Amino acid sequence: xxxxxxxxxxxxxxxxxxxxxxxxxxxxxxxxxxxxxxxxxxxxxxxxxxxxxxxxxxxxxxxxxxxxxxxxxxxxxxxxxxxxxxxxxxxxxxxxxxxxxxxxxxxxxxxxxxxxxxxxxxxxxxxxxxxxxxxxxxxxxxxxxxxxxxxxxxxxxxxxxxxxxxxxxxxxxxxxxxxxxxxxxxxxxxxxxxxxxxxxxxxxxxxxxxxxxxxxxxxxxxxxxxxxxxxxxxxxxxxxxxxxxxxxxxxxxxxxxxxxxxxxxxxxxxxxxxxxxxxxxxxxxxxxxxxxxxxxxxxxxxxxxxxxxxxxxxxxxxxxxxxxxxxxxxxxxxxxxxxxxxxxxxxxxxxxxxxxxxxxxxxxxxxxxxxxxxxxxxxxxxxxxxxxxxxxxxxxxxxxxxxxxxxxxxxxx
Length: 413
Description:
The protein is of the alpha/beta class. The chain folds into three domains: 15-72, Roll (Archaeosine Trna-guanine Transglycosylase, Chain: A, domain 4), CATH 2.30.130; 80-184, Transcription Regulator spoIIAA; 188-412, Rossmann fold, CATH 3.40.50.150. It has helices spanning 80-97, 136-153, 166-170, 212-219, 236-243, 257-269, 281-290, 312-328, 347-359, 374-377, and strands at residues 15-18, 26-27, 32-35, 43-48, 54-60, 68-72, 106-111, 120-125, 128-133, 157-162, 177-178, 185-190, 193-198, 226-230, 249-254, 275-278, 295-300, 330-340, 381-387, 406-412. A seven-stranded mixed beta sheet has the order 16-15-14-17-18-20-19, sandwiched between helices. Strands 2-6-5-4-1-3 form a six-stranded mixed beta sheet. The radius of gyration is 23 Å and the shape is globular.
């Protein structure tokens, strides 16, 4: 298992020479020209350009395809004061500029490259800082980072987990770490609604803070309406549709029983009635269509369906099939929210997929009458808005990959 490292400089830093160094913070292994012999995986290194000039500093892991993650330029040495400045600046954004403490006690504090700390995300969830590490170098320094961050956000405990694919992508196995007495679960609040976070059974850091503003926006369409939340996970959209939105009927659907158990707890915490169903989304939607059931508001927020370029074609098709069926469940003039967290699916491609879904989302007709009814087989869709992650998940101008969540709001005719 990997050992933790301090943030203080270890002395003379080993050097790496890259074939090119640009503004993007991620440098692939094939762009590394040479590395000093004494460099070890996870080291903080000096990075030199092709002409031998010092280009900056980064964390190096020769086992990873993304071998070098830049931290700073040549004039900013990443000593302990550097880390303190980075963390303090990230906290100021959330607490002073965005004033998130007024809306929730659950928000992202560190958003990887967008906060200049590639390979690390940290969420504040009540009294706990929950960190997820995607790079070896960040995992090795994660405890020192959360211990510096704790007094800045006023939390009492911290938890650290390696990302789900670190063995394959970074070549290391890391154990989950936590402060002494860290609770296995917390209850957080968001716009007055309460949600339970079960760390052991949860994905990512434990709660999807990125959809906070979208959950509130959805509630504005739900007064006295019927709402279907597909791939509902722990019921964020479903509970807020009822709690904030005053929906008449809410159904949440998910295949996994563990998050559904938490979703039911969340409904009980807020004293709202939501029906949660354990089912495959495809099968459930087909059953509803067979029963001629329609909903005023439909939310489609599937898990990540595209994790690599090799999955792009298949994952896009899954998005297409899900959207095509979901649109057919929207009552005429109703609202549909379609989301994707697949960063490899560009905004233009996601919209094209939605338009294609709409063209094939009408009631099915027989082959003999297909041409005659082609105009009526499609659903007419009006795009009302396009949103993304909440502002505590900023986008780095030099790293477009930090824009990963897309949410398209539609009126379906």
